[in-house]
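Supplementary Text 2. Reproducibility record for the structural model of the 156-residue chain.

All settings were left at their defaults, and a single model was retained for analysis rather than an ensemble. We include the record here because the model underlies the residue-level annotations in Supplementary Table 4.
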Amino acid sequence: MVVKVLRPPPRIKVLEALGSIADGRISTVNNGARVSSSSGEREYYVVVTEDLRAYSNDNGTLYRGYVGYPIIALLMMRGVLPFDEAIARALSGVPWKTLNETYKKYEVVEGIVLKRAEERGVSREIVMDYVSIVMKKLSSMKIVFDDSLVKQQTLF
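Retained model, structure tokens:
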């Protein structure tokens, strides 16, 4: 059994979580969810308990030790983290995997995504203020990775 406190994510993961919700790529089941990747090639399984024990099989959570975007998306859908419909709509259809693999730097991808949001009527400042609010909330939460949760779920 692996149990460890997850670190706050890179800021771009907040935007990726919004995009996954806007694209309808997350479906909740019991106390968890299934999240399809932006390319549709992968499916992530997420569980978060009320006491903030969590499991997700995305790379950020499993291998890098931070709160991955599928966990963030589920917490947004539950109202634990703030959700902004206008920003989410502006981020729909972003090909996250393609951008991340092409540019290999979150800062570059973030710039592309912010430009896209601006073109869709949401200013860079509004998006960055929102991200700061979510990151502050995430930093105040103690989310603990617990791989025993995956064994307790029937959704996987």
